Amino acid sequence: MADRLSPPVFPSYGVGIGWRPEIGGFVEGLPGLRFAEVVAESVHAHGELPPGLQILLDRGVTVVPHGVRLSLGGAEPVDPDRVEHFAAVAERLHAPLVSEHIAFVRAGGVEAGHLLPLPRTREAVDAVVANVRRVQGSLSVPIALEPIAALFDWPDEELTEAQFISEILEKSGALLLLDIANVYANARNRGTDPLDLLDNLPLDRVAYVHVAGGAEHQGLYHDTHTDEVPQPVLDLVTELCNRHRPPALMLERDGDYPPAATLAAELDAIAKASGYPAVT
């Protein structure tokens, strides 16, 4: 198992993108691409990899598996079969780390099919930490945890968002996958300043960063991953890079894929906001 007391820092790989079959040809053709992310559950633990992923690996592009179904925040222990698959995918991809969400996706045997927010309580902290440790026991690489976008907060919460995230990271030894679009969405929907969260998170634990688009609907901002990255999110990228060494940044796009020129422009905008060279 990797040393959890002094977690390794994910090398700064500039700007990457989430690999999806629908845009596989575009991703494979990016000349300056050094890292990508793939949904762990979309990769078979055995057998051939999707051709596009194999092309990236053959080029020396680092590919990080990103889990969406472990339910780390659930009251029940994580499913051993899902953990085994997660670990096997990391080994297949020779990944330097893996990532999952601070969320739950099932309870009482019912699958929600969606990432659900946790109450910010110490009991929830303990549940997440216990499950993270169970997962870490099957991994040979570090895990980074991603706080999600939430359209509501549970009542009677005991901790601020920064305190909640920080306690989980400290007690579990995990790294932080910071989704800057989620920071923007949560602050906008709560009427708070997103910079307050950035100023109170342990940025030295950031492994890499998600950047994504969203849209407003009925007065709430939704982190859709199907819309263009708005300027306020790009501004937060710059603020983050001003506060800490520029981390690896990754464009998330999960549907309504635009033409290649539009995707390239989004990647270039992220590179410009962070000071990294373009990957296109």
UniProtKB/TrEMBL annotation:
<dbReference type="InterPro" id="IPR036237">
    <property type="entry name" value="Xyl_isomerase-like_sf"/>
</dbReference>
<dbReference type="Pfam" id="PF05114">
    <property type="entry name" value="MbnB_TglH_ChrH"/>
</dbReference>
<dbReference type="InterPro" id="IPR007801">
    <property type="entry name" value="MbnB/TglH/ChrH"/>
</dbReference>
<protein>
    <submittedName>
        <fullName>DUF692 domain-containing protein</fullName>
    </submittedName>
</protein>
